[in-house]
Amino acid sequence: MRLILHVWRQKSPNDEGRMVRYETNHADPHMSFLEMLDVLNEELISNGEEPIAFDHDCREGICGSCGFMINGKAHGGHPGTTVCQLHMRHFKDGDELYLEPWRAKAFPVLKDLVVDRSAFDRIIAAGGFISVRTGSAPDGNDILVPKEAADRAMDAAQCIGCGACVASCPNASASLFVGAKISHLGSLPQGKPEQEIRAMRMVAQMNEELFGTCTNLGECEATCPKHIPLEVIARMNRDYLAASWKHR
Amino acid sequence: MATTLETSPLLQSRLPSGPIETAWDRARFEMKLVNPANKRKYSIIVVGTGLAGGSAAATLAELGYQVKCFCFQDSPRRAHSIAAQGGINAAKNYQNDGDSIYRLFYDTVKGGDFRAREANVYRLAQISVNIIDQCVAQGVPFAREYGGVLDNRSFGGAQVSRTFYARGQTGQQLLLGAYQALERQIGLGQVQMYPRTEMLDLIVIDGRARGIVTRNLITGQIEVHLADAVVLGTGGYGNVFYLSTNAKGSNCTAIWRAYKRGALFGNPCFTQIHPTCIPVSGDYQSKLTLMSESLRNDGRIWVPRRKGDMRPPNQIPEEERDYYLEERYPSFGNLVPRDVASRAAKAVCDGGRGVGPHGLGVYLDFSDAIRRLGEKTIRERYGNLFEMYELITGDNPYQVPMRIYPAIHYTMGGLWVDYHLMSTIPGLFVIGEANFSDHGANRLGASALMQGLADGYFILPYTMGDYLASAKLDKVSVDHPACKEAAGAVQERIKRLLSIQGKRTVDSFHRELGKLLWDECGMARNARGLRQALARIPEIREEFWRNVNVLGGNEELNQSLEKAGRVADYFELAELMCLDALERDESCGGHFREEHQTPEGEAQRDDERFCFVSAWQYTGEGKQPALHREPLEFHYVKPSQRSYK
Amino acid sequence: MSAPAIAKPNVAAKNFSQLAGFWDTPIGKKAVMAVTGVILFGFVVGHMLGNLQIFLGAEKLDAYAALLHSMPGVLWMARLVLLGSVGLHILAAVQLTLQSWEARPRGYVKKEPVAATYAGRTMRWSGPIIAAFVVYHLLHFTFGAAHPDFQPSKVYQNVVTGFQVWPVSLFYIVAMVLLGFHLQHGLWSMFQSLGFSHPRYTPKLKQFATVFATVIVAGNCSIPIAVLAGLVK
Fold this sequence. Notes:
Low-confidence stretches of chain C: 1-5
Number of strands of chain B: 19
Largest interface: A-B, 82 and 80 residues
CATH architecture of the domain at 280-407 in chain B: Alpha-Beta Complex
Helix content of chain C: 55-70%
Oligomer: heterotrimer
Low-confidence stretches of chain B: none
Distance between the termini of chain C: 71 Å
Number of helices of chain B: 17
Helix content of chain B: 25-40%
Shape of chain B: globular
CATH class of the domain at 280-407 in chain B: Alpha Beta
């Protein structure tokens, strides 16, 4: 397969950056998208050009490291798929592809397609946890959790923190990410004691990190590789509004 | 080399004496404690943020120690523990099916083919129940039954249902639990987190581990970090094979640098081949994807009876299918341990009955389970795994059997540690997959998560206190000659890698090394092949240092440079692995020496000569490492030929 | 970029009183938009129902207008609430929009919507156009300043003469279609903003929003169309 790639190249955080055109004849329908980039990078190195930097690690869609825009869609826009799991059979010979990093003020570009997502960590640090000291837990079956609640929690807990929600949101909002953690922990009895303060702290931190605001467009849900539903944002709103009303 | 089984004086395992059931309690009681008010005066470096490192950093910080935590990924949440699918074992006996701490202990010692310490494994089985409690309280959304109680599934190598799981993403959920506990401590200022920072050397002062040298992967800055103790939770070294189920970034550099600073390396040749991975599809393949072992609960493994039968699987009639695991091992069937299942798959493929385009694959068929339980139940149990399989292969496993083949998955070997998880360098603790300890020569499914969390949450926090309370630690500064020497060596090495500017890429060397190791030191090994590999590896390494091409500079994000440093270490480790595999002239667990097999083709141990842990000591550049032995004693589970028939 | 990112210490230690206030967070502002949206939506419905009395003849409509004016207290109260709602709705919208623009200072070379509806994507266009329309509408029919032949308290006649100018009618129809889009997204969105979402009801809510928005557009547009068609004279 022959492909034409337009890739964002930026040497460092302070570099201006620009789109650069590449051509490769070595794509194969069985390759993953990242393997296609591996092959292109090997070609670039052989030509004395620096390879394209992109974040990746597990290459099985669970670590959340990889992710960039392919033709204006986060992770390429296939449902439930990260770029590492996106295979080249979805593309045709001669396709022209635009690869750009996640764009958001809260996610500064570090190099090429690599961005800094530490804002997500700081949001979790603000309140995305259940405070339980190691060793202080009761027996696992002392806390009964209705299957439905456990399933709902698991649906939200699947978030891999890749940042596609922010990248695809026209407002660069992190609501799906934050809502997922609030829903995960809030759906379980263990998470109830901190439900209010968690919502308040996480929302405040999200705001401080300069993410945009949710306008309920659903782009995040549609490009989320883990199918996190928009409902988690409603849950975040509900928890936050209830908490801020109670503690006004 | 003579094989008198005497413990090397270097290997003080500090195993407790007396009844095994109360050994850990007694050991804990004998440990010195650090006064709560004094804990904040101690600083601890934790490298790695997986289940072991993450849980350790969070727990140590909760106790009041000052923790500095490092990971090479952009966030501690990305450690490769996240990719574990199937589950975590615990001897809860919630199913009332005859499980007990003793049975988990027994299964693990036997599953490891009698090459692990009994006391360690017993402690692991005891702690397993606390882990589940802790994780539930943290909000890990384990699968539940309709009554609200925890659900279990069964897993390879066991006849009871003791595996707790969160869909096919158990590792993810457990890791996020530890990550959230860690982030909480970061938010409280108890942990200083350094993401995108790679440890490149260990600093040893007056014989004790006192710090590390790191490279900031964004700026290239080389820094020295000092502390009262260093903990490595840096995972395994399966990527030495290039193709493995490990994450691309997983590497051996941290433990290898510690080895070169004097920590002994235990059982380097003990690697685990996982039987259920998606087969290789081409030369460009960058990694292998595991399909959880839990699939073997409901999937049936088979190949055509006839050699070269190219018919599509659905057209091969029942009587022409060979369900070889069920036939050979009627009592465990498809749930035999990983090493046994992997070798059986290799045997049928070597016999020309493999399926798929390259003939390297066997079928994992769910059609019976779907008929029996309905597609909905199967979807609930394995939905995400089926989805993943379809994404990668383009085949729908609800309709066509999956094709699977074994792949490198886990390394039982690692830095040698005593019962306190301390290496032979005082103050250097090694936890999780990075150490050699609990799995012997083969790890059972759903035991890695258990061990990582046991080490991090419930063992290290005690033993660390004992070390700090008993050690006399002088203040050290970054001006110490040992710091300058280590930082200088790191800089020198980077400079050297960048200056070669040869013709070949880092990956091409890594592939070549990986293929060689897979062929000669993979699923089956023999003395001739190992000797060939030992001759060939130095040649490739020499070419690497002469002809590798690393573009770009140090003062920037340079992924080629990161890779080059890791691959350079793999060359050295690969040599040690082959040496160890050659030295261990027996078969045990995942280490299968073709010269030593039973008439049925099972691994044949030699307990007379090899019932010990091999611990290798670095003796200098270009010199043969020294082998030290720690004999293993079995007082509770008598070594026997493993049988899963 | 020098030091690696380290979480700001003590974020996890903040208590309720140290955290950002309601209006300082986007969720608070969105809630204000939702509540004011409900009020304005109620007004749109009432306004339409009142105006549809035009089909019952001049007497009915003028009497209705007279009735409203006979209660100046209530009328001004309603006007103040509406004015306040519009003000808050717009203020919140402007602030949130600015925040979102700041959140992505550099856009994409290529960006394809995957799920966002046309209505959703055009809220920031439909909103200001509707606001401009409201101003014109007040000048046109309430104050008469933009009406060529305005007769105080002759509502029916003002409507007929006003809409007989076809460009005016066209502008009204366009504005109503935009209002329809605005409502279609806004109607279910306000539930989401206030925290209500349910896998069973949300899809119905979206359908309901579409139906309701269509009814509003049809009802309101029927008046200028009827006038242009000569059905209402």
